[in-house]
Amino acid sequence: MKVLTVNFLTCAVKACKTSPLSFPLHFQDAELEQSDIEYNPSFLRNILPRVDWEALKVTANELGFTTVPAEKPNPAPTPTNPDTNPTETIKESPEAQPADDKVMRDLHTLLLETEVREGKMVCGNCGHEYKIKEGIANFLLPSHLV
Amino acid sequence: MLPTPSTAHVDFNRIYEPAEDSYLLLDTLSSTAETQFLTQRFGQTEGQNAPSPTPTILEVGTGSGVVLAFAAANARTIFGRYDVLALGTDMNRFACQATKQTALDACQGLDEDGAAASKDRGAVILLATLNADLTGPLRSGVVDVLIFNPPYLPSRDVPGFPGGVSEDVKTTIGAFEHDSHLLSLSYEGGVDGMQVTDRLLDQLPFVLHNERGVAYVLFCQQNKPDEVMERIRAWGEEWSVENVRRSGKVAGWEKLCVIKIWKN
């Protein structure tokens, strides 16, 4: 399960959905695994509008990632052509700002390359724990919570 | 024709095997009418400067994962862009594992054809397969495209949750009964075969993106799809609903159709 996933999730208990405390779910005892995914700045740029930044900062902190900037970055646009390989448009341009690039590469690592293999996600409202085993999180609720 | 993902690795004793209903969804997603609709809605135009938010594709009840893998691996043709975020849920944990494998294989498989294929690499991201009931843990408005091939066969009742079954009980009731139970979850739909689908329909206004959201849901004739469409029309004028695909006579009594429900 990729770290980005938790940005789209909340507690499965119906009564928790309206509580701001139910988002983001909090990682505990997380065992991480890095996968290798080609860095693609235009792809990452398209993902950023979908990310709830405040929640991501909480998640990153819980997983020990310290390089997430305080504000959502607004990287310089890379023109895209849907008929060419997006990865080919990366060509390191000399005017690219190294700081920007570093921030984006770190985000790529955190959001897309980092997988949570084991551990749990805990609701900040009801305290229910959702276990993650072999990369698959169990959101099935016991019958008294359905 | 777009390639159908391989499910050779899937154990069909405990996971629903792709059948006419699955293939009807593949035909729907890759039809000219739907690829045009989806590309218009989600495609990235050439030279576009503003970021174009990556669409999230959620398949509910993925089973083998053949539909989600198909949508993800053929994103360029279906959605008019390389980058999509794929997400799956299933009550059956084995299905979650299988879906992961099917999706990863399908997206990598494209790479083997050389040039055309390597374009997609790194662009299709499988976020996760979650062991969940329908859209249970999804936040409001995060899903752009939802696909559901429900348990649509009429049955006396809907089989119980596997959630409460502990490892001990599984051993007691035996592996075969447990597998049969898991399989029954994938097709027994209760009264009119609609008990599970009705719950999913209730969740659509919550999980679908407020402007871009669209859902494809499969029905059989006994589900009374025309009545369901009437009900959805009553949701308000911001919703549209259309019967976009019907199976031929080949399916015998199990006459199927795919209904598209979307936000204007």
TrEMBL record, chain A:
Organism: Lepraria finkii
Region (Disordered): 66-102
Coiled coil regions, renumbered to chain: none
One Pfam family this sequence matches: Trm112p
Family: Belongs to the TRM112 family.
Protein name: Multifunctional methyltransferase subunit TRM112-like protein
Superkingdom, natural source: Eukaryota
Compositionally biased spans, kind Basic and acidic residues: 89-102
UniProtKB/TrEMBL annotation, chain B:
Presence of keyword Transferase: yes
Name the UniProt record assigns to this protein: Uncharacterized protein
Recorded family membership: Belongs to the eukaryotic/archaeal PrmC-related family.
InterPro entries: DNA_methylase_N6_adenine_CS, Euk-Arch_PrmC-MTase, SAM-dependent_MTases_sf
Family annotation (Gene3D superfamilies): Vaccinia Virus protein VP39
Origin superkingdom: Eukaryota
Keyword Methyltransferase (UniProt): yes
Keywords of this entry: Methyltransferase, S-adenosyl-L-methionine, Transferase
